Amino acid sequence: MSRGIFATVALLMWCAAHATVLPEFEQPGAIWNQDVTNATLRTNSTLMMTHVESLTVGHSGSGKWGGGSKEPANFDFQIDFSFYVLHATNEAPTKIVAYPDVDDYFWPDCGDFHVPGLAPKPAPIPLPVGGGIEGTGPPDGGLSPSYDCGHDDDCHLLVQQGTTLFESYSTSVTGSGIESSCALTWDLRKTYPRYGRGEHCTSADGAGFPIAPLLFNADEVFAAEQVQGNLGHAIRFIIGNDRMQQGVHVHPSSHGTSATSDTNVNAMPYGSRLRLKQTFGGGKTVTTFSSNEAVRVMLRTLQKYGMFLSDGGRIPLTAESDYYTTNKWSDLGIDSHSFFGIDPTDFDVIDAGPAITDSGNCTLTPDDFIFIDGYDF
Fold it and tell me: How far is residue 242 from each of residues 65, 230, 263, 357, measured CA to CA in Å?
């Protein structure tokens, strides 16, 4: 047997034994990479998920997710494919321009960059040629991704360059630079404490999480499909702000929002981690819910790593567009409807400690307290 064939066989044997695909963003000790199969549940877990379903109004189907005061429709367990994760080499950096002005920029939460009128750190964002911002290009009508989002939506820009992850919210690129309401960096070498970049600090996502490590893409699903495995990390989900507990969050979220409005004692706090039950969807299991192995990859992932409540909005699940990936969602047999029939009560809520009342006063974690070796000091 040749060395190359032996190495390939050895790799396949290793993958079959571990059945977990290493995540694209391997942050050491990151909580989204931690197995919660046997994690302790919140004492009111069942009541919390029953309460979410009780908010369903005027819908005859299984759509019990999403909604919100601005868009009161109910959504099924649907997938949004509008995000791009760009990978930069040595592209020229671009400066940040506060949008719509300095008074509306999220400061000090998003103070990693040189923003005129605010105390700067010199870390501009690289823009790969041919890249794009969430909501541009396919599947929303455009022929290709674009950096001109126009601030009509969340307009997230996600760029990885080496061990740095750049993320921006409410983004558009103009002649003067990157217009943004919040631009920041994550150091992929480092382990962040339980309150992330800082208690009461937001990020490009409402809960203060990074976005890219919690997305899922067609290449990683395909790789896991080959070994009947899982993705090795939790994923991102969202619901309407009026379905989240008012003014609180739980770790590892570092931030909630004043837009949340549910005052019920069993309402779900920002940052909650849900885990799919072993039996769900009306008495089904991973193998009986779907014969599609790619769908089963996602179900196993939700049972082992779960999903984090990361922001307010409509469509619950967030995937990466397949525009830049080798594998395509259509080839995997996954579309926005692949998980219809899975309801909130099919999930348990992992115990994350007491809810923290949002103060609105961001206290950033000092750079030397975000540690590389995984140990606090």
Answer: 12, 32, 9, 17
115-126: buried (b, 16+ CB within 10 Å) or exposed (e) per residue? beebeeeeebbb
| Residue among 37, 5, 52, 23 at smallest CA distance from 266 | 52
Is 155 in contact with 109 (CB distance < 8 Å)? no
Residue 3 belongs to what H/E stretch? helix 3-18
Alpha-carbon gap, residue 73 to 103, rounded angstroms = 33
The answer to whether 319 touches 216, Cβ cutoff 8 Å, is yes
CA-wise closest residue to 93 among 178, 213, 196: 178
Residues 6+ apart with CB under 8 A from 267: 48, 51, 243, 244, 245, 246
- Torsion angle defined by CA atoms of residues 279, 35, 76 and 216, in that order, rounded to the nearest 10 degrees: -130
Strand arrangement, sheet containing 244-249: 268-270, 244-249, 356-357
Count other C-beta atoms under 10 Å from residue 371's C-beta.
16
Give the tens place of pLDDT for each residue, 174-208.
988 899 999 999 988 888 888 899 999 999 999 99
Whether residue 67 has pLDDT greater than 50: yes
